[in-house]
Each structure stands twice: as C-alpha cells, then as structure tokens.
Amino acid sequence: MAKQDKKQANKAISSAETAYVRRRPRATRPAGESARARRRPLLATAATAAERDVRSGRAQRAAGTETVTAPTGPVGRRQRAKGEPGNVFGADPHKRTLTATVLDCRGGVLGTRVFRVSGDGHREMEAWATGFGPIERWAIEGASGLGRHTAMYLARAGHDVRDCCPNRTNERRRSRQGGKTDAEDSVRIAREALADPDMPVAFKRAAGEAGPDETTELTGLWNGARRSILKSRQHLLNEAETLLCELPEEVRAELPDVKDVRRRLQALAALGPRRADPATALRLKLLRDYTHSIAELDARDKEATAELEELARRAGSTLSQLCGIASRSEAELLVEVGDPRRFTGEGGFARFNGTAPLPASSGEGEGEPKRHRVNRGGNRRVNAVLYRMAITQLRCDPRAKKVFEGARARGHTKKEAIRILKRHLSDVVYRRMMHDLEARQASAPASQPKTTRRKAA
To answer: Which residues contact residue 2 at a Cβ distance below 8 angstroms, ignoring those fewer than 6 apart?
Structure first.
C-alpha cells in the first residue's frame, strides 16, 4: 500500500512539473536572430563576432561601402607601449575596389574592409587603418600594377609602402587548399608583410625613398613599347616567310636564294605586278602589305631605341660600355633592377637575377661536401641579359674566356661553366650600377642624400 501511494505521489509531481513547463512563456528574441545565435556565449565580444564574420565570408553594405567586419573602428584596442612595433596593413587591390586588412604586431586580425579605388576611398581607408593605431608597414599586392594608385597615394602621404609579389600569396593558398576570397587574400598579404620586414619597397626604390622615379618610369614605358614592336615585327616576318614558301615555283625562282626575309620581300616588290591566279594574287597583295607594315615597325623601333639611349644617358648609366650590353639590354636592366641600393649586396643581386645557385645539401657535417643546384627562379629577363652578355664576351673578351676555361679545368661542364661566368658578370653589372649611382649623386645638389652601400648578409 505504501509503495502504491509513493508511485502516485511521484506521478503527481511529474505532472505538475510538465504543466509548469508548458505554462512557461516562450522567451522573446529580436527579429532576425537565429536559434544558433541564441546559443552563442553571452560573453562574446563585438571583436570576436567580427572575426567570425570574416572567416565565414558574410559581408554587409553600408553607405555604398561593403564591409566585412561589423565595427567601423577599433573595438577594445589596447594602448601601444613605447618601443612596441606597430600594426601591419595588407591590401588586395582590383580595378575598382580593394580589400584591406590590419593586423596587430602579433598577427591578430583587427579588421577587414572593402574600399573604392578613388581619392575619397583612399582617404577613408587611411583614416580607418590608422584608427587601430600606428601602421608600421603598408603592403600592397602588385604595387606597380593594379595597386599602383593605392601605393602612390600612400607613398605621397609619407608611409612605408611595400610591394608584395602575387606569387607569395598564391603559393600559400595552394599549399593550404583553403579556397580564395579577397578578405583572405588581404589577410595573407598582411601576414607576409609581418613575417618579412625586408619585403621590397614599392616601385623598386631603396629604403627611405617613396614614389616612382620619373626617368625609370619613362624608360619602362619605352622599353615595353619596343618589346611590343619587336613581337609584332617578328610575327609579320614569320607570316611573310610562310607566304613566300607558298608562292609558285616560277615566282620563287626570281627571288634571291637567301634566308633573310627582308631581302626576298624587297626583291618581290621590285618585280612589279603580274598576272596570276586569285590565290597567288592574294598572297602577293598580303606580302606587299606586310612589307609596308614591317618598314613602319622598323621606323618605330629606331625611334624607341633613340629614346631609350637618351633616357639611359639622362640616368647617368654606363652599362652600354660593358662588352655584350646594347641599348635594349641596358634599358632592360634599368627597368627591372630599379635602385640597386635595395639589394643587400652582390649576393642579393645574384639571388634576384637567378645566377646564385641554390643550396641542395643533406646530411651536412664536418668534412661533408656542400652541394648546390641550378637556380631556375629569379628575374628571368635580367638572367637573359646576363646570358647574352656571357655568350658575347666568350667571343671577344679574354677575361671571360679565362673564367670559362678555369671552370672547365676544374671539371665543370660547358653549361656549368657558362653559369659560373654569368655569376661573375652579375657582380660586374651590380658594381657598375652602384658606381653610376654614386657618380650621379656626387654631381647632384648637396640637399640629396648620399648613397650608402649595404653589407652583404
């Protein structure tokens, strides 16, 4: 009997609790708030929510400006102690917009936003970034390309602007296989700038100088125009060679038996008009048009070459005095190298142009050999200039022959001996460019800073 009374009492208590739960009013929540948001910890801060929004890729739009983080200014920013390194800025620019990220000195994301590529957008970006605290470095991906306007604005404002090579962020993204968004790219750019204090200064300038150099910029424009002229002319010469080979045998017999396409085109133009079938007549017409186009490109090539020689003289360059360097190669070096002071020395310049071999040793120890392998990286245009310089000097310079024969006597192959000669010529070019820079600064007004050689690391 007592056991039955106890069961009925427990049943009554359970019914009362169920009724209480059913009668309990449902908690109200703001409109648009999800059940998942109500399960978040109550102590989560606005900064933590902003970082979560960046990782999930959600974006908001306010006043025509797309924002990734909710706060418009720093949230809970601590005071920067004296002597502590500043924040780092990274930007992923595009034609009309750029995505910017600010990191603290320990790599924490302070904020990410999207701005317009315009004067107002750049001013808003600068005010937003400096609102988190002083910025130590401003890293722009492709500062000479899509990020040119942003880099020029920041350089004119007196900031330390760095150029982040797009290959660096691409390699990190491929290794992680974490997808791709502009916000993630800007974070990676900022992290690259934070991890590498020696990231190249924008516009290939030395440390302490900002903005593009006028002479170097003009040389780059003329050098790019001449490169396009050469490609177009070579394309026309290849097509003319094909059409000349397709001409009837009686027409080809009247042309000189040489490989030079220009001489055969000139001889064909001297033959004058003749009766022919429609296909042959069209080929002759196309060849006449190619002849005029090639002559026009030759004139433009001479103009570009004359301008490049004048710009090289204005820059005070004497690279053309070295055996194996013509005006085109000299312009290529001036454009690709920029200010030679931005390198740590001859070794840094050799790593830049790919003539320095890469270490490839394993199991190193006392008495063990240190092996190296060929460097396939570096600036291949400068590397090509050094290769042409080496091949030319092997024909006419006794010093180059001595270096080459010495390498062969030590057991190196011909290709390895040429690489050793290229490494030697890399030092020659670097020393000549430094000498030209010092001579130019010596003749400049005393208000300009003097050149200081950086010791090799």
So the answer is: none
Looking at 314, 344, 368, the residue that finishes a domain is 314
Domain containing 202 equals: 46-74+85-212
DSSP 203: G
Share of the chain above pLDDT 90, in %: 64
Per-residue tokens: 264: 């055969």
103 and 203 inside one domain: yes
For 42-57, how does the pLDDT look when each residue is reduced to its tens digit (9 = 90+)?
A: 333 334 443 444 344 4
Alpha-carbon distance of 161 to 200, in angstroms, equals 9
Domain assignment present for 293: yes
- Where helices occur in 177-260 by DSSP H, the ranges are 182-195, 214-245, 249-252
- Examine the pLDDT at 381 and tell me if it is beyond 90: yes
Instruction: Give the distance, in angstroms, between the CA of residue 286 and the centroid of all CA atoms in the same chain.
Output: 41
193 located within any domain: yes
Within-domain flag for 188: yes
- Cα(92)–Cα(114) distance, rounded to whole angstroms? 9
pLDDT tens-digit series, residues 401-414: 999 999 999 999 99
Helices 414-442 and 398-409 meet at what angle, rounded to 10? 140
From 212, 229, 260, give the residue that closes a domain. Answer: 212
pLDDT in tens, 282-296: 999 999 999 999 999
Instruction: Give the total number of structural domains in the chain.
Output: 3
